[in-house]
Design brief:
With 372 residues, this protein is of the alpha/beta class. The protein folds into two domains: 135 residues, 2-Layer Sandwich (Enolase-like, domain 1), CATH 3.30.390; 221 residues, TIM Barrel, CATH 3.20.20.120. The strands form three sheets. The protein has a seven-stranded parallel sheet with strand order 5-6-7-8-9-10-11. The longest helix has 23 residues. The two termini are 13 Å apart.
């Protein structure tokens, strides 16, 4: 496959409601899109960075600059040297650049989408999906009050979501969890996500979550504190799940070996793309560690790829693969719709979704084409 030009596009899509986590509040989802054109097709990748380096060290404007100035020229040289590209060649070509996994993931996904379309293969078929639909969970941000939280959770359960994830931080943890359990009962699949907001000194506090029978507590400590997570896992009964700490199959294997996690959240953008995401799935499956697919408030493009990934056999827990209207009144693609608590896995070639031109144009801030 020979790429001929690449587009870098910056978009800003208003959210249905503000989304607050321990590291900030988003009112608009600002992200990048990468489009690769080849001699026979084109493919899309979603850059899942945030506007500021608060979730990871990457941020949207910086990632677009890295793509423009470093990664795309490297990809172009590799394609010229080899007389073409396939998805497996992308990561080795970009390896001289350290880190920047989200930028690399967006470029690799665009190449993969184009490559699959040329072969009339769906992402789900290529990844090895075993299901036609996946269970959908929903992530509920930090609210101004417990009554507001209960109203939101009640609404999501009424819509049919099969799992509730509560964002927590110091001062917003025991009370909201207790209130949700009291109102909706023990049968609701419930988990919490701290986004690194605690330290090991908070272990006694986090142990007070044990009686609420949570599925897991996600990333309670700093991302580099693997030993701290292992110690925390010994002190609490709630299963520890790692998110930000898992950046590769190797880091997943190390965390499992050290006892730092009992569950893994796989976010393809965070780990460098869907090839590495599948490797992490395989490592976890080999160690009988369940995985689930996290989310970064993706548009229909990233959501399509995540739903295909979540259809692999090791994804045994509902992920953050919510319907499009959880975040956006109008998505840039055909929307994903919740059906009996599930989302359908796309089976069209490539990602199975493409942007609708007029919807994409309405949210585009900048666009530039780079000829290879």
């Amino acid at each position: 496959m020979k790429p001929t030009e690449i587009e870098l596009r910056r978009v800003a899509i208003p959210l249905v409601a503000p989304f607050r986590t321990s590291f900030g509040t988003q009112h608009t989802r600002e992200l990048g899109l990468v489009r690769v054109r080849t001699e026979q097709s084109e493919g899309w990748g979603e850059l899942v960075t945030m506007t500021a380096p608060v979730y990871s060290s990457e941020y949207t404007d910086g990632a677009l600059a890295v793509l423009r100035d470093h990664l795309i020229p490297m990809l172009a040289r590799a394609a010229a040297d080899k007389g073409g590209l396939d998805p497996w060649a992308v990561a080795p070509a970009l390896a001289p650049v350290k880190g920047h996994r989200m930028a690399k993931a967006a470029l690799e996904t665009a190449v993969l989408d184009a490559w699959l379309r040329e072969r009339s293969l769906s992402m789900a078929q290529w990844l090895g999906a075993t299901r036609d639909k996946v269970a959908a969970g929903v992530s509920v941000g930090i609210m101004d009050s417990v009554p507001q939280l209960l109203d939101a959770v009640g609404g999501y359960l009424a819509e049919g979501y099969l799992r509730i994830k509560l964002k927590i931080e110091p001062g917003w943890d025991l009370e909201p969890v207790a209130a949700v359990r009291e109102r909706f009962g023990d049968d609701v699949l419930l988990q919490v996500d701290a986004n690194t907001a605690y330290t090991l000194a908070d272990a006694p506090l986090l142990a007070r979550l044990d009686p609420f029978d949570l599925l897991l507590i996600e990333q309670p400590l700093e991302e580099e504190d693997i030993r701290g997570h292992a110690e925390l896992a010994r002190r609490i009964k709630t299963p520890v799940c790692l998110d930000e700490s898992i950046v590769s199959a190797r880091s997943a294997a190390d965390a499992i070996a050290l006892g730092a996690c009992a569950v893994v959240n796989i976010k393809p953008g965070r780990v460098g793309g869907y090839l590495e995401a599948r490797r992490i799935h395989d490592v976890c499956a080999a160690h009988a560690v369940p995985v689930w697919c996290g989310g970064m408030l993706e548009t229909g493009l990233g959501r399509a790829a995540n739903v295909a990934l979540a259809a692999l056999p090791g994804f045994t827990l509902p992920g953050d693969t919510s319907a499009s209207d959880r975040y956006y009144r109008t998505d840039i693609t055909e929307p994903f719709v919740l059906k009996d608590g599930h989302l359908d896995v796309p089976h069209e070639p490539g990602l199975g979704r493409t942007p609708i031109p007029e919807l994409l144009a309405a949210v585009t801030e900048t666009s530039e084409w780079i000829t290879l």
